[in-house]
Amino acid sequence: MTRLSYIRLAMTGSEGEMMRRSDHHYTGNEFRVASNPKPATILTALRGVLGEEKFNEIHRKMFEVWSFKLMSPYDWFAFIEAESGRDLSWFWRAWYYETWTMYQGIESVREGRRNTTITIRDNGDAPMPVHLTLWLANGEKVEHITDSVDVWLSGKRTKAISVPYSGVKRIEIDYHRHFPDTDRSNNVWEK
Fold first, then answer.
1. Which of 177, 147, 122 is nearest to 49 (CA)?
2. 50 phi and psi, to 5 degrees?
3. What value does the CA radius of gyration of the chain take, rounded to a whole number of Å?
4. What's the whole-model pTM score?
5. DSSP code for 20
6. Hey, how many other C-beta atoms are within 10 angstroms of the C-beta on 184?
7. Distance CA 33, CA 28 (A)
8. Per-residue pLDDT of the chain (191 residues; tens, 9 = 90+)
């Protein structure tokens, strides 16, 4: 429900940025969403970007290091980046400083003898990695994660991802629902 209330407001175009003083939000709805549903949704998205284990490890360490101290958002951003060893400036900008939304979908699927090429279209402005779950003809379920967002940051709108499997019966983007995709109607492909 939290994610849905954030997405509903974001789709109206009347959302306010989270990195804005609370008394500078234009409407009560903007303040409400920027204070509760969006931060919870984006924290879940960060867990999806970093992976459950790394996310939990970083936050346990943060509670040890920052206990009884005042942590600013900038301290938190820097701590997450230092502990993960990743530049997440694209994440902070998209979700904290802008009101961009995410919208990924499966554009096409081409099967070869030994691999399958999945073309993903990104129609949103918030760059996010692509998490694919594949169900194979033999009943196996395979997770395929593309961590890089470089293709989206370069301005491209499509990305071809080749996976070393044939006989794919079903593909789904973000099966575990980590990311706030605004339209999931094209997140599933079935043969």
1. 147
2. -85, -25
3. 18
4. 0.92
5. S
6. 15
7. 9
8. 688 888 988 898 878 888 887 776 667 777 777 778 899 999 999 999 999 999 999 999 999 999 999 999 999 999 999 999 999 999 999 999 999 999 999 999 999 999 999 999 999 999 999 999 999 999 999 999 888 899 999 999 999 999 999 999 999 999 999 999 999 999 999 99
